[in-house]
Amino acid sequence: xxxxxxxxxxxxxxxxxxxxxxxxxxxxxxxxxxxxxxxxxxxxxxxxxxxxxxxxxxxxxxxxxxxxxxxxxxxxxxxxxxxxxxxxxxxxxxxxxxxxxxxxxxxxxxxxxxxx
Length: 116
What we know:
This protein has helices at residues 2-10, 18-30, 34-46, 51-63, 67-79, 88-95, 98-104. By secondary structure, the chain is mainly alpha-helical.
């Protein structure tokens, strides 16, 4: 967990790729490391630039209660209105419960697989 050590020494996550930061977010959420979770949430929220980014991260944001990340994703969807409502992947997020969405998004690549 080099990233946890780097964060504890310098408080920065800037040199790490998003998939690594996302893994640490899951770790921090699982082990109640609120400062680390907040830093990961903020870092990931700052990289959301378009609908593709938002679609990739929204489920993780909701699952891990990463409120800044979820807000950044929703902001992208809202900025793209009304076009975003014509995108079936976006409408599924707002219409179907999360448990049902999984079967509709099976073709979506996951960033990582991890268990703690």
